[in-house]
Amino acid sequence: MGYGYLIYFLIIVLVPIWAQFKVKGAYKKYSEISNSSGMSGAEVARKILDENGLYNVGVEPVGGFLSDHYDPRDKTVRLSEGNYYGTSVAGAAVAAHEVGHAVQDKQDYAFLRFRHRLVPVANLGSNLSWILILVGMLAHLSDLLLLGIVFMAAAVLFQLVTLPVEFNASNRAMDQLVSSGVIRNDEEKETRKVLNAAAMTYVAAAAVAVLELLRLILIYTGMTRNED
């Protein structure tokens, strides 16, 4: 049992680290290679937005490393300064990916809408679940532990729903980058490596969350069995 727990904890620690290593490595490598069009991330984002009729969506620089995101409340694509001003393959890929979320928003993409509805529940679950779980385990209160598991399941569901949202945005990004002429066909492989590496961080986070949820369910079933 001791070795099993050791392996489990190594997995939940090492998998996210590995995913972060992959994305940072791919980003660093391809942020040093200019895209063939010579367009900055801001220009790429603006071009793809305009081609999709999203003239009302703004593009702004934001501080931080890989802090790029689309804000559906402000209808704004925000790109980290390196991607906003730079002309790299990585910057173009990230910019197009974030625009992919803006296009999803315009088209009322089902998984994106579902994820938005889950935000309040997921936030509550993330903040409250571990308090309930720890108290339930320490006090041997199975009902309280179960409630914590339910809240945690809501947060895990949010992470699972995030996967199709992110993969769809990356697929849209590849299509738009090629069709708009931002990258050549021979740059597709490098661009996809950046997008796939970024996607792995979401896959790793979801996998770890599911494993942890399953572990807690097993603890709960063992606790209820002992109570009987």
TrEMBL record:
Key word Flavoprotein present: no
Transmembrane segments: 6-23, 118-138, 144-165, 194-220
UniProt-recorded Gene Ontology molecular function terms: peptidase activity
A Pfam family: Zn_peptidase_2
The keyword Transmembrane is assigned to this record: yes
UniProt keyword annotations, A-Z: Hydrolase, Membrane, Protease, Transmembrane, Transmembrane helix
Example GO biological process: proteolysis
InterPro entries per UniProt: Zn_peptidase_2
This protein's name: Zn-dependent protease
Taxonomic source organism: Priestia koreensis
